[in-house]
Structures are given as structure tokens and as C-alpha cells.
């Protein structure tokens, strides 16, 4: 499948998976967040695919096997796996794993910037500031 078609596929999967979900405050449809992340990753199709799907496994009933079956490439699935939070793993070890993948790092940084632009709490400001320092330490 062509990369542009994969980006469209990822957008469709994310839109369907996040249907009925809303951001903080309950007014903004959740899909606006992945759309915002996509707008921050540039023209790299793999990053756009991961940006569309970065919260799907964590926040919906869709899993990595389903994404694989729909045609999402392994390189993107690995980045999605890395950005998906796993219960019992602390924030810094989670970010350390993400930092091992340039693709996952690029999308997670865009995710944090999107979250920072969405009226974050003081706690979230501190968390994302710490996260950005961790993810940009080797850049």
C-alpha cells in the first residue's frame, strides 16, 4: 500500500476508534488531539501514521494485532507500542524506551507539545517539561 494511502487508513482507524470520546472539559472531540499531533510531525508519512494512531491502543478497544491486520507497517506498530503506556511502568522508564526509537520520539514530542497547547494543569506542565528534557537530551 502506498504511504499516502496508509496515512489515510490511519486517520480513518483513529477517527472510528475515538468516535464518541472527548478531550478535557468534554466539549472537544478527541480526534482533534491526534490531528494536532499529526500537524506537528511534518511530512514524514510514518510519523503521520503513528501520530494518528498514538492513543488508539491505549484509549480504545483496538490492539496492535488489529492494526497489523488492517495493514499498518511493522515499523509504525513498533513506535505505537512504545508510545502506549503500560500499567506498572514509571514515567521516566517509559520515556527512556521511547527515546530508543527516533520515530516514537518524534511523535511523543509532538504529542507533548499538543498537550501543552491544550490548557494543561500545573502538574501536566511539570510532567511534560521533564519529559521533553528526557526525550531531547540526545538531540
Structural overview:
The structure is a single chain. With 139 residues, the protein is mostly helical. The chain has one domain: Hypothetical protein af1432. Helix content is 65%, strand content 0%. The chain has nine helices and no strands. It has helices spanning 3-17, 32-40, 45-53, 56-59, 64-69, 74-83, 91-98, 102-116, 122-136. α1 (3-17) runs parallel beside α3. The protein is globular and about 40 Å long.
Largest sheet, described in full?
none
How many domain units?
Answer: 1
- Tally the helices: what do you get? 9
Query: What is the H/E string?
Result: HHHHHHHHH
Radius of gyration: 14 Å
Indicate the proportion of strand residues. under 5%
Q: Unreliable stretches, pLDDT < 50, 5 or more residues? A: none
Quick one: how many beta strands? 0
Q: Let me know the average pLDDT.
A: 95
- In whole angstroms, the N-to-C terminal distance is 32 Å
User: Could you say what the CATH topology is called?
Assistant: Hypothetical protein af1432
The CATH homologous superfamily is named Hypothetical protein af1432
CATH top level assignment: Mainly Alpha
CATH architecture: Orthogonal Bundle
Shape descriptor reads globular
Helix content: 55-70%
Class inferred from helices and paired strands: mainly alpha
